[in-house]
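Figure 6 in text form: structure in, sequence out.
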């Protein structure tokens, strides 16, 4: 694989023009993740069980905010209120831990807080997902490795994917996931994102639709182009922003990367504002605050800005106990009851 420009383990938001041979290598985890920084800086030494609920809530909220793991000093308390309802801090922590599957919580508010922060990934290192983004060089062959899955999109022209004993032509607007070793040939512009240490399912699709099938925040929509094969697996998505969107600042627990495939907009981050237009490559490290904004719609479609985005993991997808084949298999009356209950929930 020929590399023209290589960026290793970026720790801040990146936007780059599509450059043939551009490589963004995130196979390692960098020096520190935000979770490691938080664990080193977070301390409850200044407070004890003798402190009031409000003093403890303020101390925790301040630490979360300073480490960019909450949107404000008051977010910690407000989130507990919304998640389990109002009450004493000890009661709220007890109920929250129960909702997270911990039914025997330790004694004391501070121990419960530490356990809670571990459970939600603030005081426990999140799993690192090794990923590489690469821009195919027109006219050359891109060789992609075995023991990995490769997700991609053809932005312009035509490419041919050589997968074992077959050749599959791809034109602008088509996407794919390929499990294992393969080659990309042709004169087109093709972004390919490799998720190492994961073997998924080979899938060819497209063209990408002009508007999403699922609601997203602030009036945006998205479509899952490549679904997680099992709960927790990677996914590949198309994300759509209508005209005059001012998206809420937010973060994701794992990296996001991809390509602007249509329209124009701006991504606002603590590091500055980044202009987005067709052909821009973006890379977002885990826990990085950002928001997308659009202005005039020049695309002729409902979406003023459309991107394809790769997620290296998910909290969604079928499991061995919950998937269409087993859910719709009846050999006891209770199976009909369970299936009917699921159907009712879908229709509510």
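Output sequence:
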């Amino acid at each position: 694989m020929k590399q023209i420009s290589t960026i290793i383990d970026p720790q801040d938001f990146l936007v780059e023009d599509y450059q043939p041979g551009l490589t963004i290598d995130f196979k390692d985890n960098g020096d520190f993740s935000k979770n490691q920084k938080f664990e080193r800086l977070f301390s409850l030494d200044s407070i004890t069980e003798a402190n009031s609920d409000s003093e403890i809530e303020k101390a925790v909220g301040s630490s979360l905010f300073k480490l960019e793991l909450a949107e404000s000093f008051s977010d910690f308390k407000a989130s507990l209120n919304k998640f389990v309802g109002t009450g004493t801090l000890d009661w709220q922590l007890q109920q929250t831990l129960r909702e997270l599957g911990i039914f025997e919580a330790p004694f004391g508010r501070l121990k419960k807080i530490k356990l809670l922060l571990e459970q939600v990934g603030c005081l426990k290192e999140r799993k690192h997902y090794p990923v590489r983004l690469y821009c195919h060089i027109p006219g050359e062959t891109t060789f992609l490795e075995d023991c990995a899955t490769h997700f991609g999109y053809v932005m312009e022209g035509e490419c041919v994917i050589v997968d074992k004993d077959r050749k599959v032509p791809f034109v602008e607007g088509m996407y794919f996931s390929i499990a294992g070793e393969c080659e990309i040939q042709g004169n087109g512009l093709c972004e390919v994102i490799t998720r190492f240490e994961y073997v998924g399912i080979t899938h060819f699709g497209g063209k990408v639709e002009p508007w999403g099938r699922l609601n997203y925040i602030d009036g945006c929509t998205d479509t899952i182009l490549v679904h997680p094969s099992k709960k927790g697996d990677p996914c590949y998505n198309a994300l759509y922003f209508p005209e005059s969107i001012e998206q809420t600042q937010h973060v994701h627990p794992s990296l996001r990367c991809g390509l602007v495939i249509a329209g124009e907009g701006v991504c606002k981050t603590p590091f500055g504002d980044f202009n987005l237009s067709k052909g821009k490559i973006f890379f977002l490290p885990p826990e990085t605050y950002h928001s997308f904004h659009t202005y005039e719609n020049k695309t002729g479609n409902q979406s003023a800005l459309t991107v394809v985005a790769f997620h290296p993991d998910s909290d969604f997808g079928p499991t061995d106990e919950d998937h269409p084949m087993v859910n719709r298999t009846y050999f006891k009356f209770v199976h009909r009851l369970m299936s009917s209950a699921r159907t009712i929930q879908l229709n509510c």
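Caption detail: The chain has four domains: 6-28+128-206, 34-119, 214-311, 323-348.
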